[in-house]
């Protein structure tokens, strides 16, 4: 009887595992985006940077907010060598995400995406709890010098809304399921902890250790070398696209 | 109970492993060293365990195993919620496209139900209409 059990168990597990492996091979479980060149909608860092980080993010997602300091640190550690490309991925479960992305895209049209992006994440906890953050979004825009009428018109724009939806669909076709999701070369890192752990490891494998770490390593640089005097380079200029 | 685990495992197995890995990593109570192995093994255990339970193959043992798995989920979820003040449930943790969208409270309830069901099935000596009852003949 024991062998009957064993045989049945092996057959069952083999059929189940085989079925899954077959479906995975047919559907293709892992998709990676092609490197983005040329005209990119929202990019930070030089176009010819050796490392490109493609980010799918949601302005109302707390984990996306936590990823921002990690990205900032990466930019500081590798000045001029990283390009971050932002993609909209407003999650359906977040009440004000669609509105926040529309506002950010409107600011993108005014060349103000990144400062607006920074403010949305910095003040996420406040606006996400409001009964309606429309006025807050308008205030952020006005603070950056965008005229009320232009911003208000754009907030009604179907074209802008469609652009965001298309971008989210593009993410879904890459099997982006949760935010933030980052693509760095052939690496997919989901969440700020994976960005910090796996993402940094990937970047280090391409660019080597960060400049600050190289300078801190006493064996690597002799103390009388002029390179010791080298301090951290200023952060890369951020062109608004 | 079996179908919940089959669906949970199936939906993860057809996605890139990094998606689930990233979600586990957000539970900061799990040491990072275990994140990779859990991400690889958990969906298979859920899917195969759930399917074996539905088929009624070694139902007591399978139910016990899935019950303990539910207990593990409760411990991780509870400690994340109590110690860190949050559980990563609000960023598409069940997959943005999944038709099941549960709040932290609902996940707690589901895990408690599964835990109770697991121990109930384990306590039962006979399982009618199960593969086990056929194999015993």
Structural class by sheet pairing and helices of chain A: alpha+beta
Please state the average pLDDT score of chain A: 85
What's the count of strands of chain A? 5
**In which range does the helix fraction of chain A lie?**
40-55%
Distance between the termini of chain B: 26 Å
End-to-end Cα distance of chain A: 71 Å
Give the SSE order of chain B as H and E letters: HHHHHH
Largest interface: A-B, 39 and 36 residues
- Unreliable parts of chain B: none
Oligomer: heterodimer
List keywords for this structure.
heterodimer, A: 241 residues, alpha+beta, five-stranded mixed beta sheet, 10 helices, 52% helix, disordered C terminus, B: 137 residues, mainly alpha
Task: Give an account of the 3D structure.
The complex is a heterodimer of chains A (241) and B (137). Chain A is of the alpha+beta class and 241 residues long. In chain A, 52% of the residues lie in helices and 10% in strands. Chain A contains ten helices and five strands. Chain A has helices at residues 2-27, 62-77, 97-109, 113-122, 124-127, 134-143, 148-155, 158-173, 192-207, 211-216, and strands at residues 43-44, 51-57, 82-88, 181-184, 187-190. In chain A, strands 1-3-2-4-5 form a five-stranded mixed sheet. In chain A, helix 2 packs parallel to helix 9. The longest helix of chain A has 26 residues, at 2-27. Chain A is globular and about 80 Å long. The N and C termini of chain A lie far apart (71 Å). Chain B has six helices and no strands. In chain B, helix 4 (59-83) runs antiparallel to helix 5. At the A-B interface, helix 1, helix 2, strand 5 and helix 9 of A face helix 2, helix 3 and helix 6 of B.
């Amino acid at each position: 009887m024991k062998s009957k059990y064993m045989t049945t168990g092996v057959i069952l597990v083999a059929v189940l595992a085989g079925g899954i492996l077959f479906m995975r091979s047919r559907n293709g479980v892992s998709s990676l985006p092609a490197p983005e060149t040329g005209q990119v909608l929202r990019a930070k860092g030089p176009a010819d940077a050796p490392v490109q980080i493609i980010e799918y993010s949601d302005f109302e997602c707390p984990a996306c907010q936590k990823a921002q300091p990690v990205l900032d640190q990466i930019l500081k550690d590798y000045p001029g060598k990283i390009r971050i490309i932002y993609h909209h991925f407003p999650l359906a479960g977040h009440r004000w995400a669609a509105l926040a992305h529309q506002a950010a895209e409107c600011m993108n049209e005014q060349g103000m995406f990144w400062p607006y992006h920074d403010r949305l994440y910095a003040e996420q906890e406040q606006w996400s709890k409001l009964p309606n953050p429309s006025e807050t979004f308008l205030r952020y825009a006005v603070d950056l010098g965008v005229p009320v009428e232009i911003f208000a018109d754009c907030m009604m724009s179907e074209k802008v809304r469609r652009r965001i939806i298309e971008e989210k669909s593009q993410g879904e076709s890459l099997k982006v399921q949760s935010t933030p999701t980052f693509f760095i070369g052939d690496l997919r890192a989901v969440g700020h902890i994976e960005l910090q752990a796996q993402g940094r490891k990937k970047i280090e494998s391409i660019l080597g250790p960060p400049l600050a770490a190289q300078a801190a390593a006493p064996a690597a640089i002799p103390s009388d070398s002029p390179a010791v005097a080298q301090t951290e380079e200023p952060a890369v200029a951020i062109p608004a696209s | 109970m079996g179908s919940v685990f089959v669906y949970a495992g199936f939906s993860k197995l057809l996605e890139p492993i990094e998606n689930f890995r990233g979600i586990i990593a957000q539970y900061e109570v799990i040491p990072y060293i275990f994140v990779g192995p859990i991400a690889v093994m958990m969906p298979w255990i859920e899917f195969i365990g759930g399917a074996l339970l539905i088929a009624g193959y070694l139902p007591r043992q399978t139910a016990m195993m899935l019950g303990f798995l539910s207990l593990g989920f409760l411990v991780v979820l509870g400690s994340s919620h109590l110690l860190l003040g949050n559980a990563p449930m609000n960023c598409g943790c069940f997959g943005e496209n999944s038709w099941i969208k549960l709040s932290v409270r609902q996940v707690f309830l589901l895990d408690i139900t599964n835990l109770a069901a697991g121990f109930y099935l384990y306590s039962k000596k006979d399982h009618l209409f199960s593969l086990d009852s056929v194999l015993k003949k």
